Amino acid sequence: MLRCKIPTPRLRSLHSQSRSVHLGYLPNSRSPIVPTLSFFNSVTGSDEKIPTFRVLDGVGKPVDGAEVPELDEAFARKLYENMQLLPTLDTVLYNVQRQGKTSFHYGEEATIIGSAAALEPDDDIVDLIALLFFPIAGQYREMGVILWRGYGLDAIMAQCFGNMDDTAGKGRQMPVHIGSPKYHFHTISSPLATQIPQAAGVGYALRRSPDRRSRSIAACYFGEGAASEGDFHAGLLLASTIPSPTLFIARNNGFAISTPSSEQYYGDGIASRGPGYGIDTIRVDGNDILAVLVAVREARKRTLKQGRAVLVEAMSYRVGHHSTSDDSFAYRQRSEVEDRKRVDNPIARFRLFMESRGWWSVTEEEELKARLKGDVMKALKRAESLPRCELGEMFKDVYGGEEPWNITEQRGELTRLIKKYGPVWEPWKKELAKFKNGGKDLTQSAS
Ligand SMILES: Cc1ncc(C[n+]2csc(CCOP(=O)(O)OP(=O)(O)O)c2C)c(N)n1
Ligand SMILES: [Mg+2]
Fold this sequence. Notes:
Layout: H1 73-98, H2 109-118, H3 128-132, E1 136-137, H4 143-148, H5 153-161, E2 185-186, H6 195-208, E3 218-223, H7 230-241, E4 246-252, E5 255-256, E6 259-260, H8 273-276, E7 280-285, H9 289-306, E8 310-315, H10 334-342, H11 346-356, H12 362-385, E9 388-390, H13 405-421, H14 426-432, E10 435-436, H15 440-443
Parallel strand pairs: 1-2, 1-3, 3-4, 4-8, 7-8, 9-10
Antiparallel strand pairs: 5-6
The chain binds thiamine diphosphate (TPP) and magnesium ion.
Residues 141, 190-192, 223-226, 229, 251, 253, 255-257, 318, 322 line the site of thiamine diphosphate.
């Protein structure tokens, strides 16, 4: 098991000027009165940008002064294998999408796997209460988090293909819009940033629950682009004013589709906003898995101990296109992407670190890649061969409690239509054949 020896990071003061000579404090406030006219535009107290916490350098060596967390070989291998799984999965799904079968988004290996490992389910034990409060609220690039938790490739593929094994979504969500009560993963929703205030609400609910108060936090992932939404501000304000143990993980990968971060904000990234809400904040190198692990683990402890929100900004660079519908070379240089793939590559850095400890070799690398590709292909083939859920599942558990009239009406209408056209109209025949029992659950049901 890994233990972190890094001392608790201190928060930097808002601006050092306030610590110089002052004339007392404003009434009912800790704001020092100063006689100098001076504006500030930095949360570090100088003209510096907020620093970025790093453990490993670009070639996997510990940076001067950094303490490498205690890490055993088995755990390091697990981290590495999970990182390698993400590009393997991406490549296979990319090709599948090109055949028109599904669509997907790229992942960010070190940020996703490092933070998932730091959010081990020891604070999220699977129980009935957990079924009510799904402690991870993601955006869409966090497939690696749920894989880390044991969700499995078959389940990922089932969701992407919307087949009968997609037990939570029943094929009703778009690909990669995963959700799982069992793995405490709130269903991804397409409108950006909705998960942020929801996560603050989940955190608050956890705090109000006597069973979970002392061991649970809600973790919320979002991109720097999503942080431009009003919901970001609503969520952080909510989590700070009505204190809730909510850990916000901002993945700053430099782009919101084609909009570079330089056009998304004028201030110092997302981290600078944390102190505005009174939220403990740290910026971390999102391509350094050990830095992410240490920072998120510390952030998690802080969130739990204080019962308050914490913000982590993980700095990265999206080397892939935004999604399969995007061609990023229309708005950025190919050479820039190639450079960023080489410099600070999260997987290569950690592999070099593993090699320096004698934990990894070229042969193992080849074996791992072959094994992962085999696993992904097997899951893909299985998913392709399975039918969709029964057609009638579409109308079930849409809302809790009694079925509302509109759902009943819609089911009735579809049933009438497939009775009339299903047996005779070729496109419908073909479509119905994709469902388990070919729609008979509706046409042969008593109602
Ligand atoms: C409210 C809303 N506006 C716009 C979109 C379209 N959209 C989908 S992803 C995306 C970019 C998000 O960027 P970021 O949050 O940085 O996440 P990243 O894709 O970089 O991980 C946009 C604009 C959306 N889904 N929802
Ligand atoms: Mg982004």
